[in-house]
Prior knowledge:
Layout: H1 24-34, H2 50-69, H3 71-97, E1 102-118, E2 121-136, H4 159-187, E3 190-202, H5 207-210, E4 218-222, H6 230-238, E5 245-252, E6 255-262, E7 264-265, E8 276-277, E9 280-289, H7 293-318, H8 321-329, H9 342-356, H10 358-375, H11 384-397, H12 413-436
Antiparallel strand pairs: 1-2, 3-4, 3-9, 4-5, 5-6, 7-8
Helix pairs in contact: 2-3, 3-4, 3-9, 3-10, 4-7, 4-10, 4-11, 7-10, 8-12, 9-10
Amino acid sequence: xxxxxxxxxxxxxxxxxxxxxxxxxxxxxxxxxxxxxxxxxxxxxxxxxxxxxxxxxxxxxxxxxxxxxxxxxxxxxxxxxxxxxxxxxxxxxxxxxxxxxxxxxxxxxxxxxxxxxxxxxxxxxxxxxxxxxxxxxxxxxxxxxxxxxxxxxxxxxxxxxxxxxxxxxxxxxxxxxxxxxxxxxxxxxxxxxxxxxxxxxxxxxxxxxxxxxxxxxxxxxxxxxxxxxxxxxxxxxxxxxxxxxxxxxxxxxxxxxxxxxxxxxxxxxxxxxxxxxxxxxxxxxxxxxxxxxxxxxxxxxxxxxxxxxxxxxxxxxxxxxxxxxxxxxxxxxxxxxxxxxxxxxxxxxxxxxxxxxxxxxxxxxxxxxxxxxxxxxxxxxxxxxxxxxxxxxxxxxxxxxxxxxxxxxxxxxxxxxxxxxxxxxxxxxxxxxxxxxxxxx
Length: 441
């Protein structure tokens, strides 16, 4: 590691804004810029007592209710909590390793429920299950630090050390994804297409249903042609005209059945409107294929590389307010650009678990870790990538051998608050969609 740059003079202490008279806005702003709850004189150092018992029982009750509704969803949420915890472990361990002072390590946000102190760090649980945080002192020029602790402040460390600490959370997500996928591939196997088409859903009252087709049927042939993919199956259907009667051979529970289906006219608005229509949702059949250790490692790398590219594109689409609005008004059905929340993903995890079991939950957790790791590096506060961008800007502005340049993050507050507003809008929109138009519903 490179040596720590000599610390600049301590920043001027602003008027007593951290005291009990600090406004709610100022407290929120300071905590957002600090990357977690700031040390406030009005907040008790340790927590516990009756409020802690009630709060913790409330959190446990929510998890029990989730488990009753769907054990698979509970397993996914617990796995997600472990991933969030490990994200903060990444920040905490690298901060301690590089000599920075971490004063708090909390699971969840909001008011303190329970905590204990070990050494210079307070560990505990807060009320709102909305992530976690590690409080590292001196994240920026507005963060007040005891002069005796200035040498251990984040802002006074070398650029490589700051970048290591601030990106450690996202790196941890990538490590988790690698471990999950590699473990899945070496035990259960990798889900690969078999070259057959499975009918996922048959709409009641539509031509396929009237002709005897059922959910789960495997399409062996359509008018004498064997479709090798869901896309090819759709092409075969649309190559006919509404009213045609087509022979369809399917496999159901190990038996081969010959059906005759009269095609209808697609009533749904869009490019397929008026074309031949079966009234089915199909997918390419897939099954788990055993992989050796070497091939599992290779597939893990290639699959995660592809997932990284998709996640980067997904972040851009999801953060686009136009896409959010289109989903809200129902004119966009692209799941890759749809905002969602833990409510929606948890519901989807329950459906996936019912279908694929533990393997499906592991694969979903791996994908979520990749996406969260990427979005967390978005170069804007309050994401970790915002702190990384500030550190990079300061490095560029610092002359070789000169006094380290320190950016005035107060100028970033309006932009950061705009981002907070956008995230709040996306969250509310995602929650609305998850409830009104749930994924897989």
